[in-house]
Design brief:
about 280 residues; alpha+beta; 6-stranded mixed β-sheet; 4-stranded antiparallel β-sheet; 10 strands; elongated
């Protein structure tokens, strides 16, 4: 039995089990056999940002070529490709799977400490941890760790060992980017008339005010942008003229707002509008 026959047999078996498959050439990369797919614009128009189903006369490039149809796998077109193929890949997201690709010993050690047990497939340099459930794919979510699921392919290296478990929240969280926090410049305000002492310069009073402002923003269920502006305005009206606000205080307010979905630009605009409203 030739290697080509073995590879195609594996592909047919995987397709029958519900895994969308595609052939891989040497270098573990998909075939790109037509002009439309030559530059990874799989199955679509030039510069197409989101690939669609493959409609090319040959197996095209990437995950969109994956299929569970045995007639396609056994077609004369694919037969020519199998003769050049070095392996089989599959589209995890198409089978509602997520692969956590661990590329080295350090990544494996992290997974064993941080992730729930599931099916494990050994790779050349590390391991694939398979979970039931699809999610967004992403590379380098942490050192040596890639996520392969929707709009991505993974090389078939065998069934692995262990029982596949449900995709946990800790894996989904790996692709969630922390909001970038823009720290506003320290507020510059006029000195108090007569040089009197600031009536708010007590740690307890100021801390309570900032904490209440953070809570007001965090608990907003609607009109978040308006709530952020009104909260900034209230804080500045109480503490803006005496100079007791520090960059640390204002950064806390910006962080609370961005956690609710406000962009750095919206935060800066709301802060600036509040300063203008108060003549600061």
């Amino acid at each position: 039995m030739t290697q080509t026959t073995d590879i195609r047999r594996d592909a047919l078996h995987l397709a029958a089990s519900g895994l969308p498959v595609l052939p891989l050439r040497k270098g573990k990369v998909p075939f790109g056999n037509c002009r439309a797919c030559a530059k990874n614009t799989c199955g679509g128009r030039p510069n197409m940002k989101t690939p669609g189903p493959c409609t090319c006369p040959h197996p095209c490039h990437g995950w969109a070529a994956a299929t569970t149809d045995p007639n396609v796998v056994n077609s004369p077109t694919w037969a020519r490709t199998w003769r050049e193929a070095a392996g089989v890949a599959y589209h995890p997201g198409g089978a509602s799977l997520t692969v956590v690709d661990l590329d080295n010993a350090e990544a494996i050690a992290w997974a064993r400490k941080s992730l729930p047990a599931t099916r494990i497939v050994r790779t050349t340099r590390g391991e694939h941890w398979l979970y039931q459930g699809a999610m967004q794919s992403a590379n380098a979510v942490r050192p040596g760790v890639d996520i392969k699921s929707s709009m991505q392919y993974a090389r078939w290296l065998g069934p692995g060992i262990g029982t596949i478990t449900a995709l946990p929240a800790v894996v989904r969280a790996l692709t969630v980017k922390e909001p970038s926090v823009v720290r506003p410049a320290a507020v510059t305000v006029p000195a108090l008339a007569g040089g009197g002492a600031c009536p708010h310069r007590t740690p307890t009073y100021l801390e309570r005010g900032i904490a209440m402002a953070e809570q007001r923003i965090t608990e907003a269920r609607e009109a978040v942008h308006a709530t952020v502006y009104r909260t900034f305005l209230a804080v500045l009206s109480t503490h803006g003229r005496c100079g007791c606000l520090t960059e640390t205080h204002t950064a806390r307010l910006f962080t609370a707002a961005q956690t609710k979905g406000e962009s750095p630009r919206h935060c800066t605009d709301a802060w600036t509008n509040a300063l203008t409203k108060l003549g600061l």
